[in-house]
Amino acid sequence: MAHIDYFFSTLSPFAYLAGTRAEEIAARHGATLTYKPMDIIALFGRTGGTPPAERHPSRQDYRLQELARQSTKTGLPLTLQPAHFPTNPAPSSYAIIAAQDTGGGDLGALVHSILRACWAEERDIADDAVVRECLSGAGFDPDLANRGLLSGAETYAANTEEAVERGVFGSPFYVVDSGQKFWGQDRLPDLDAHLAGDL
């Protein structure tokens, strides 16, 4: 059985545009999936990346055009400049970590609802009420938002370290136990093909 480690930031518009396709691909191939929320800004600093706001204007302009195109292609509505971006990704990341450790709900739905809250619903994913609502909507105990904060912080930091060590440099990023890596929601068809043995 194949396994996929899914490294992502809850601030990533491209992770939002992945929707729940990684979950669908994993299910189709009987693969397991582990969610690894990470600190994307720290990752950029250690792997040669630049935060969007610090990029050259030509790169910022291209990013906005690409986001608009990908939103159209995926059918997922997206606000190019959401009201609460950037915000603190830690609370939502800790909640995902706690939910994964506890179980009992739909992790894919939780991750997507948090990303959707930021990129389509103009909500602040650092707000406790927003995180609790996302947890509840995905079938988890909303009190997970306030539990295991130290453990969540430790895992979040460890995920970021692991990302650096394993050659991850962006979000979303999928690493298969075969050693193959796939960066970006637009590479999900390639992940699908790889798991099918065609690529």
UniProtKB/TrEMBL annotation:
Q: Where is the DSBA-like thioredoxin domain?
A: 4-195
EC id: 5.99.1.4
Catalytic residue list: S12 (nucleophile)
Q: Which InterPro entries match?
A: DSBA-like_thioredoxin_dom, GST_Kappa/NadH, HCCAis_GSTk, NahD-like, Thioredoxin-like_sf
One Gene Ontology term from the biological process aspect of the record: naphthalene catabolic process
Q: Which organism is it from?
A: Sediminimonas qiaohouensis
Which superkingdom? Bacteria
Query: This protein is called what?
Result: 2-hydroxychromene-2-carboxylate isomerase
Q: Which UniProt keywords apply?
A: Isomerase
Q: Which family does it belong to?
A: Belongs to the GST superfamily. NadH family.
- Molecular function terms, GO-annotated: 2-hydroxychromene-2-carboxylate isomerase activity; glutathione peroxidase activity; glutathione transferase activity
Which Gene3D superfamilies does the entry link to?
A: Glutaredoxin
**Catalytic reaction equation(s):** 2-hydroxychromene-2-carboxylate = (3E)-4-(2-hydroxyphenyl)-2-oxobut-3-enoate
Which class of enzymes does this protein belong to? Answer: isomerase
